[in-house]
Write a structure and sequence with these properties.
It contains 4 helices and 9 strands. By secondary structure, it is of the alpha+beta class. It has 2 domains: about 15-100, Alpha-Beta Plaits (2-Layer Sandwich); about 100-175, 2-Layer Sandwich (Alpha-Beta Plaits). The strands form 2 sheets. Strands 5, 6, 7, 8 and 9 form a 5-stranded antiparallel β-sheet that branches. It has a 4-stranded antiparallel β-sheet with strand order 2-3-1-4. The termini are far apart.
C-alpha cells in the first residue's frame, strides 16, 4: 500500500493559490491603448481591482498603466504574456515578482459625527497621518496616503465613527532601485 502524506497541507499546489499582482505596463500614449489593455482583461474574464494611468514621458509619448489584479501564478503569467503581445505595449512588469516595487494610494474620506465620535476620528487621523482637507461643524474630509493596507485599515476604523463617503485613487507603483522601466 502506498504511504499517505501525514497532513492534507502537503496536497496544496503552489500554482493553484490565488495571489495579488501589481502590473506596471508601459504603453504608447495613443488613442485606444487603454481600451485594448482593459479589453484584454474583460474579454478573458480577468478582474481589475485597481487601475491608474497617466503619461510618463512626453517626448517618447509613453504612458504607464498600473493594474492590480488577482489570480493563480499561471493566470498572472498568462495575463502578462497576453499583454506583452498587444501592439501599444512596450513592457510589462509584475512589481510583486519580477522587480520589487513601492506602492502607494490616496483616499479622500468623509466622516460625519459630533462629540466623542468627532474627537476620536480626529485622534485616529493623527495616528495615520491623515490630513484634514475640509471641515464643517459636523464633518471632516480626510486625505490619507500610503500602502493599500494602510488605507484599508483607516477606512475600517472610520466606519463606526461616521464614514459616509470615500474616493480612492487606485494604486500607483514603481520599481525599486536605479533601473527604469
Amino acid at each position: 500500500m502506498p504511504q499517505q502524506p501525514a497532513s492534507a497541507y502537503f496536497l496544496v499546489d503552489k500554482h493553484s493559490r490565488e495571489t495579488r499582482a501589481t502590473l506596471s505596463i508601459l504603453v504608447d500614449n495613443e488613442v485606444g491603448a487603454l481600451a485594448r489593455v482593459v479589453g484584454l482583461f474583460a474579454g478573458r474574464g480577468y478582474n481589475i481591482e485597481s487601475l491608474t494611468v497617466a503619461e510618463t514621458d512626453h517626448l517618447r509619448h509613453t504612458s504607464r498603466i498600473t493594474i492590480v489584479t488577482r489570480g493563480t501564478a499561471d493566470v498572472i503569467e498568462q495575463i502578462k504574456a497576453q499583454l506583452g503581445r498587444l501592439i501599444p505595449v512596450h513592457r510589462v512588469i509584475d512589481l510583486a515578482v519580477d522587480k520589487p516595487g513601492v506602492e502607494r494610494e490616496m483616499a479622500l474620506i468623509k466622516v460625519v459625527g459630533e462629540g466623542d465620535l468627532r474627537a476620536e476620528a480626529l485622534r485616529l487621523s493623527k495616528v495615520f497621518r491623515a490630513r484634514v482637507i475640509d471641515i464643517t461643524h459636523t464633518s471632516f474630509t480626510f486625505e490619507v496616503t500610503g500602502s493599500p493596507v494602510k488605507i484599508e485599515a483607516f477606512i475600517e476604523l472610520m466606519v463606526p465613527l461616521g464614514l459616509v463617503e470615500l474616493s480612492r485613487t487606485g494604486v500607483v507603483a514603481i520599481s525599486r532601485g536605479i533601473e527604469a522601466m
